[in-house]
Amino acid sequence: MSSSFGKNFVVTTFGESHGAGVGVIVDGVPPGMKLSEEDIQVELDKRRPGTSPFVSPRNEPDKVEILSGTFQGETIGSPIAMLVRNTNARSSDYNNLRDYFRPGHADFSYFKKYGTRPLPGGGRSSARETIGRVAGGAVARVILGSGVVFNSCSMQIGQVKGVTPDWEFAKKHPLRFGDPKFADQAIEEVKAAMQRHDSVGGKIALNIKGVPVGLGDPTFRKLDALLALGIMSIGAVKGIEIGAGFDVCSSYGSKNNDPITEDGFLSNNAGGMLGGISTGQDINLNVALKPTSSIMSAQNTISVDGKNKVIEVAGRHDPCLCPRACVIVEAMAAMVLADLYLGRTARA
Question: Residue ranges of the domains in the chain?
């Protein structure tokens, strides 16, 4: 089972949703860099449950402990181990599901591959695993420096689509919705799904400013390919668009090409990358997330021995994944950039 990501900046996550805790080991961090638990905590707080009526009410403080790799607030070059202890797991919520596969979850495929019965909360396949990713992403941000700025927001919630993102507005909105004109409609969309005991999907927009020119390779380690790999590895992600995305299908070369002048590019349909290499422009991505799989509506499934069953999934679950997933998308992008940043050479 692979739990590691990266080549020069290697992140290995560990732990299960209802185990003692979850965490990450980060290898490849240079010595002498300022790093504190506060640097990690500010990012973890963005994905913490229980922060609004529109996220899981699981009451977890998600306080990080740095176990190794730093001394007196500086990295020492050895692997950085970080732990977040689980304090509010309720495994009893899953007692009636221990022999049944939850539709939309990894229970079925995990069982077929590893022979392990469905674990409370999804076990290793739980979204709680992403705590390690967010912690690793926080370290990656330190490596990249303050000049590389990440912004993300929800730009679609169900049928409600935003047009123009306002990054600062999104930081204060309970759904992290980016377009103030449609923000109230997005809330009503989620409320309606909750009343039906249902969930709703959405789209996250990611913008990264200050990316150095020259990150990525022209063949198998293209920057856009690695970003897609990292972000698609997030459990709920079902699609990614880079730059103009699928709009290129109906476009023409005369419109899609980004003209270049002595003052720079005149447009950014390429999303900040050409030939797999960063151009210095903003990196722009759109990320599609499926609706939360755990819903309290009746669904057909089977047991581990193949018997039909109708189940309702109780517990504490997000009606929409976008608000807490924004920082996870940022973290995976930061890890990709840090990995390439640490491995860059003049011609590689």
Answer: 4-343
The vertex-240 CA angle with 218 and 288, nearest 5°, equals 170
- The burial of 10, by beta-carbon neighbours within 10 Å (0-12 exposed, 13-18 middle, 19 or more buried), is given as middle
Cβ-in-10-Å burial (0-12, 13-18, 19+) of 265 comes to middle
Residue found under tokens 């699928």: 246
- What is the percent of the chain where pLDDT is above 90? 77
Separation CA 163–CA 155 (nearest Å) = 7
- 211: DSSP letter: P
**What mean pLDDT comes out for the span 136-158?**
98
Q: Please state, in angstroms and rounded to a whole number, the distance separating the CA atoms of residues 39 and 35.
A: 6
CATH number, domain 4-343: 3.60.150.10
Strands (E), the chain: 4-5, 10-15, 21-27, 64-68, 70-71, 74-75, 80-85, 149-157, 160-161, 202-209, 237-242, 260-261, 264-265, 273-274, 277-278, 283-289, 299-302, 308-311
What letter represents residue 75's amino acid?
Answer: T
167-186 pLDDT, tens per residue?
A: 999 999 999 999 999 999 99
Closest CA to 327 of 66, 193, 150: 150
Read off φ and ψ for residue 122, nearest 5 degrees: 95, -10
Q: Which tokens go with 286?
A: 């759109």
pTM for this entry: 0.94
DSSP state of 49: S
Residue whose structure tokens are 């047009």 = 163
Can you tell me the distance from the alpha carbon of 127 to that of 48, in angstroms, rounded to the nearest whole number? Answer: 11
Is residue 133 within 8 Å of residue 13, measured between CB atoms? yes
Q: Residue 100 carries which DSSP code?
A: B
